[in-house]
Amino acid sequence: MHQYTVPLSQKVPLRLAGELSKRVFFVSEDIESFELVEEKEGETAVVCAVRVTTRAPSDTVQMRSMLNQLVSDDILPQRSVMEHRIWQSSHPVTTHDDTFDRMLDQGIAIPSGEGQLGFGDPFTGLVAHLDEVFRAAAQRSFGALEHRYPSLIPTGVLARSGYLTSFPQFLMFAGRLHGELDSYKGFVKQVSDRDSAEDTDAAVSRALADHSTHSGYTLSPAVCYHVYEQHAGKSLDADLVSVTARGTCFRHESRYHRSLERLWEFTMREVVFIGSENRVAEARNSFMQDVFAIVEELGLAGHVETASDPFFCDAKTAEKIWTQRLMQLKYELLLPVPGGRSVAAVSFNTHGSSLGEAFSIRTPDREIAHTGCVAFGLERFAYAFVCQHGLDPAGWPDAVSRSVQSSGATEASR
Ligand SMILES: [Zn+2]
User: Fold this and answer.
1) CB neighbours of 184 closer than 8 A, spacing ≥ 6?
2) CATH 3.40.50 fits 2-75, yes or no
3) Mean of all residue pLDDT scores within the chain
4) What percentage of the chain exceeds 70 in pLDDT?
5) Domain 2-75 matches domain 85-168+221-413 at the CATH topology level
6) What is the pLDDT of residue 409?
7) Does the structural domain 85-168+221-413 have CATH classification 3.30.930.10?
8) 267 C-alpha to center of ligand 1: Å?
9) By C-alpha distance, which of 349, 321, 331, 332 is closest to 79?
10) Which residue in 216, 270, 321, 341 has its CB near the most CB atoms, within 10 A?
11) Is 158 exposed, middle or buried (0-12, 13-18, 19+ CB in 10 A)?
12) Do 304 and 335 form a contact (C-beta atoms < 8 A)?
């Protein structure tokens, strides 16, 4: 391990330390771990350096230049907006510290690669139960229609939505070999003739550089972009259209992957609203109330506050984050997990008319449609649930343990 202390040319105020922490691993994959170094500047503390640990010796000049650029482009321009807490559950915080280790020991969580896990019962039953509770609430309140979309999404759709240039760090592009015999043969030859010291990934990587192309598709980072694309160029036939879908989503989170708190591949239930400005705002707000009631009923500790997305690599970055916070376009439900941390298990978003405009969606009055979405991270939600209630269904709220046990019984009797 190699350790470097990289001094920052511009000091970062402590109120922005969290924003810096959210992005350090994206600076370089060489970084194994890091900590922020603070110093006193008069009465107040500031971050003056980042201490990074790398596995291999690293180019410190480049590391220093990238970290300083991150600070000047993405961190310092962010104006300060206090996080604003709008709801708190009545249940006290209690978490079982060793939940993740016990899930691994009992084969309930099965490591399958970086940021990827397989699951067994009772966790899978719990995820299915929670998903059904959220789906049913959306159907009851808005008549939300259930849809199913592919895991791949045309990259052009992500470009149209703005995702492609706002979150490049998360994207998992689908590549494929050039569709011709020479490419297939060249690929096979390069991979099978590799010298024995080279591992498969490195050989495939080298062969792909020579023989592959972008397929035009990307693994979906969210479900809702499919919904905007579905309505693109159309006029809605009602003031409010609501669609709900569950899908597998992919976000590469670099070294931020951690237990079940942050997965590379995960399941998302989304409820999407498209319609007039008032109806979309009303729908998001009233669905938040529905979700608060569900969290109370599930006996979970948690709270909701304003949030912003970790935008990147765009000159307008800071302005976007500030606008998002100030206009309260995004709220997150944070559920406590062990170690004093919490996970953002649900996000409640409105996008104004930006996506309606990008996808040319109009209301029945021919106005540009507004959009909003509520996204449930199902594994994260279920993980916070077992961290708080334990892994044994006997200790769960009755309605949940009954539902999980009866679905298990149905499975068994098939
Ligand atoms: Zn969404």
Assistant:
1) 177, 211
2) no
3) 90
4) 93
5) no
6) 56
7) yes
8) 13
9) 321
10) 270
11) buried
12) no
- How confident is the model at residue 182, as a pLDDT? 95
Q: In this predicted structure, what is the pLDDT of residue 355?
A: 93
For residue 1 the two structure tokens come to 């391990």
The residue type found at 166 is S
Q: Strand 212-219 relative to strand 330-336: parallel, antiparallel, unpaired?
A: unpaired
Assess whether the previous peptide bond of 7 is cis (omega < 30° from 0).
Answer: no
What pLDDT is stored for residue 258 in this prediction? 73
Strands 145-147 and 240-250: parallel
Asked if 373 and 349 touch (Cβ cutoff 8 Å), the reply is yes
pLDDT band at 185 (very low <50, low <70, confident <90, very high): very high
Q: How deeply is 383 buried, as exposed, middle or buried, from its count of CB atoms within 10 A (0-12, 13-18, 19+)?
A: buried
CA of 27 to the centre of ligand 1 (A): 26
Pairing of strands 85-88, 330-336: unpaired
Between CA 274 and CA 272 the distance in angstroms is: 7
* CB hemisphere CA count around 332 (13 angstroms): 17
Distance 375 CA to ligand 1 centre (A): 6
Q: What is the mean pLDDT of residues 185-191?
A: 94
Residue range 63-72, pLDDT digits in tens: 999 999 989 8
Average pLDDT over residues 186-204: 88
Burial of 28 (0-12, 13-18, 19+ CB in 10 A): middle
- 3-state SS track over 54-115: ECCCCCHHHHHHHHHHHHHHHHCCCCCCCCCEEEECCCCCCCCCCHHHHHHHCCCEEEEECC
* Distance of CA 83 from the midpoint of ligand 1 (Å): 21
Distance 376 CA to ligand 1 centre (A): 9
Domain limits, the chain: 2-75, 85-168+221-413, 182-218
Which is more confidently placed, 340 or 411? 340
SS3 assignment for 135-154: HHHHHHHHCCEEECCCCEEE
Per-chain residues with Cβ under 5 A from ion ligand 1: 222, 224, 373, 375
CA–centroid distance, 195 to ligand 1, in Å, is 45
